[in-house]
Amino acid sequence: MSSVKDYMWNTLCMPDLHPELKGMAYKLDYWPDFGRVTYKHSFIDLCALLSTQYVSYQQLKSFSGCSDETISHLLNTLKTSNLLSTKPVTNDRVPGTNPFSLAGYKEKLMSFLRSAYGRNEQSSAELVRGA
Amino acid sequence: MYRKLVVIGDVGAGKSTLIRTLSEIETVDTDVTSSKNIGKPLTTVGIDYGRITLGEGDAIGLYGVPGQKRYSFIWDMVKEDIWACILLVKAEHLRAPDKLIDLINVFINDKEYCPLAIGVTHTDIKAINQVVIQKVLQEKGVNAPVFSVDARKKQSSLLLLHTLLSMHNANDFSKRENMA
This protein's superkingdom (chain A) (predicted)? Predict the structure, then answer.
């Protein structure tokens, strides 16, 4: 594990989104190596969303149900790590207020993951969704 | 419903170990004593099989498949209706990305949506620059997460599984947003 990267992923938790990231849509260029840094499990969900297309802050928040702190932390760190592309939001459609909820087998699989993470003493990460 | 998670990779990359780590049942494997020095006494010559039961009516089947072309008859047996795919690569074998692309194309090329996660093992022996690998893969049209993993550790195995689930969810999001 790179201690410098780990330090960055753990400490770039600015309370607010970096000014350069405000009013932008985001797209993940490359995934961070979550095998080498300490991460929150919600970062995986957010990175997956960011990997599909340009996504606005409001879309991220609405779909993931993650806190502002978690989203800002991730976006700030991805930007600092040169893993994120941005472009101005042109038409930020107001998304629904209900966060995406898992159903069917996905809900069951997430439940399995939660349980398995919980049994794993080496896991230092936290599972935000459903916590 | 039964869903198929395929784990492909080279000899010694950790397919059998990963499946053993994730499976809730005693895995079915086809290990034999290796006739060559591959850094371990046993090697898989067929399919490894494990399972994660998700309650009534739902399960994820875990299929470990050798990455060598001479086993392509096994690829044909498992490549249909794949839910997701994990490619395990030893860090020292990353020098040949074209071979990886060929292997990836066998399993996910014609699928409607089949998320792929790449786990690089043995990074304690050879360090990797994961962004460089992702760039090479993207130039070939493959956009997949690349993680350093240790197939013996539950944390690593769960990271790959969680990522595949999140990618499926993100695909749902993308479809919903594009329809709106």
Answer: Bacteria
